[in-house]
Amino acid sequence: MKTRLWFRGVVVMGLGLLAACSLTPQPPEPLPTLTPQPSLTASPTVVWFPPTDTPTPIPTQEVMPTPDQRPGLGEVLATDTFTAPSGWQTRATTLGSIAYGKEELTLAIPGPKTSLISMREDLSYENFYLELTASANLCRGADAYGLLVRASGPFNGYRLLASCDGQLRMERIRNGQAVPLQDWTPSGQVPPGAPGSVRLGIWAYNTEIRVFANDVYQFSVSDPVWRGGTLGVYARTAADSPVSVNFTQLEVRSLTVQPTLPPPTPTPTERPKQKGS
Description:
The chain has 277 residues and is mainly β. It has one helix spanning 2-22; strands at residues 73-80, 91-93, 96-100, 105-109, 115-125, 128-138, 144-153, 156-163, 167-174, 177-186, 196-205, 208-213, 216-222, 229-236, 243-255.
């Protein structure tokens, strides 16, 4: 009997142990590891219109009037429509011809390196403004045409030349020898080649002479040699091609008001050398 009871006790205890073992809590399954996300960095704010320094205003410059390049223009002293006979010298030779046309004087040169001059000796002026239209019919390259002022004849005076490649030149003529006061200068007003026309202007006061083309100032020269004289027109060939130029619409005006001329530029003088230098 005791043996049975002991056996039952052992069995009960074994079952209790088994039950206790089956009720032991199992460890929880690990949770999935979260991968840390990179932190977001705030983007800088874009300034579309950054502030700038306020510029210092530039003082307003006073606009000075353009100086009058032809001051003192007075009454009309003479006009010429070049209708025969109006006092111009004419001729016809194998070297060329000077002849009246329809309100024009034509200088025509057929041969190479030849010049023609026609003077109007009954008109003589000292201070004046003169305009004359020159129209080239045949002309090219270094061929030239123009007019003489303050002349005592065809070989003494001042000569303004327009070349057939669009340049101007002012020279002093003395005994037939030309000295450039303003050498060849390109001009946008002188037409290159032919046909072409330009209205030449000369403003002369005392020793200063200013040159214009189509009312546009070109340059000025100063020379004390010739102070007065008559007028002339001129044409020449530079090569073998012929030249033909018409001159029309001459007008001469007086200078009634003494213009304000710029002060003369002082001539630099050489400092005397010291002894022993």
